Amino acid sequence: MRALLAALLLLVTTALPAAAHPPARLRAMTFNIHTGVGADGALALDRTAAAIRAARPDVVGLQEVDVRWSERSGFADQARELGRRTGMRVFFAPIYDLPGEPHRRRYGVAVLSALPVLLTRNHEITRLSTQDPALPPTPMPGFAEVVVRTRAGLAHVYSTHLDYRPDPAVRAAQVHDMLRVLARTRAPQVLLGDLNAEAGAPELAPLWTALGPVPSAPTYPATAPTAAIDHIAVSRGVRTRAVSVPDTRASDHRPVVADLVLP
Questions:
Q1: What is the rounded (10 degree) CA torsion for 141, 147, 148, 150?
Q2: Are 109 and 141 in contact (CB under 8 A)?
Q3: Which of 51, 56, 63, 159 has the CB geometry, 3.0–4.6 Å to 250, for a possible disulfide?
Q4: What backbone torsions phi and psi does residue 209 show, to the nearest 5 degrees?
Q5: Pairing of strands 153-161, 138-150
Q6: At what angle do helices 78-86 and 45-55 cross, to 10 degrees?
Q7: Residue 110 has pLDDT above 60, yes or no
Q8: Which residues, including other chains, have CB under 8 Å from residue 128's CB and lie 6 or more apart?
Q9: 116 burial class (0-12, 13-18, 19+ CB within 10 angstroms)?
Q10: Domain boundary assignment for the chain
Q11: Which strand ranges, in their side-by-side order, compose the sheet holding 105-113?
Q12: C-alpha span between 47 and 65 (Å, rounded)
């Protein structure tokens, strides 16, 4: 049944003409929350939620989200808590899902949405595990896709977190994998993520054949940012009205917020 619904939704999003709905504004935010630990080293998920609420976004892509993971985050279900504290719908896409007592230990990315959610998916992309260094790069989950209903029709929102290592090989493979997912629909798309590379990095170049990066100021480290590694990117036809990088120390990254117009 789920596969049938997904197929029907894909058919609708690719078949509807662009003129079926008027343009709509969408405020998007990407935020690597560093498991709720701020630039001062203190765990304070309320501070994370306050930074999100202050931006008043319609959709948020979150990275480094713990769900009952460990003591570092107080074994909290951070995805559910941030949904509750912001009043937004939440979809959590684990990268790691490990045994634990009394709860499973999970860590990954998430999407918060103030808009109705029609479909969610957790796609696999190539990863080099941080939990088992002996494993070679292999497909693993943690590329979140959420289909939301806007005043302009349906839009696909993605949250991703690419490899952090200096060697760009894994990031290049991840870009290739994400492009395969992005190619499945012609509906408006918004990619939110910590790509761990500047927009001009060679390994990201293929991504910009499908999406356009929204230029923004540096985001990392939060105390005195020098690297613009947190990105919002949009499909053709999606316009950017404004973009900002809020000055918050709720994480070791600063978020990016963009006001978009969907076709």
A1: 140
A2: no
A3: 51
A4: -80, -20
A5: antiparallel
A6: 40
A7: yes
A8: 135, 136, 137, 163, 165, 170
A9: exposed
A10: 26-262
A11: 89-98, 105-113, 59-67, 24-32, 256-262, 239-244
A12: 14
Q: Domain 26-262: which topology?
A: Deoxyribonuclease I; Chain A (3.60.10)
Q: Which residue has the tokens 């701020």?
A: 38
Residue 176 pLDDT > 80 = yes
Please report where in the chains the tokens 């509750």 appear, as a residue. 84
Strands 230-235 and 239-244: unpaired
The share of the chain scoring above pLDDT 70, in percent, equals 92
2 confidence band (pLDDT: 50, 70, 90) = low
Q: Which residues contact 250 (CB under 8 A, 6 or more apart)?
A: 33, 38, 39, 44, 47, 48, 50, 51
Class of residue 217 by CB neighbours under 10 A (exposed 0-12, middle 13-18, buried 19+): exposed
β partners of residue 143: 123
Q: What angle do CA 212, 217, 223 make, to 5 degrees?
A: 140
Please give the Cα distance from 71 to 113 (Å, whole number): 28
Taking CA atoms, 128 is separated from 35, 125, 132, in Å, by: 20, 10, 9
Collapsing DSSP to helix, strand or coil, 248 comes out as: coil
Cα(160)–Cα(111) distance, rounded to whole angstroms? 10
| Residue 193 dihedral angles phi and psi, to the nearest 5° | 180, 165
**Span between the terminal Cα atoms of the chain, in Å:** 30
What residues have CB less than 8 Å from 221, skipping those under 6 apart?
39, 227, 252, 253
Rounded Cα distance between 14 and 89, Å, is: 25
Whose tokens are 């993520």? That residue is 193
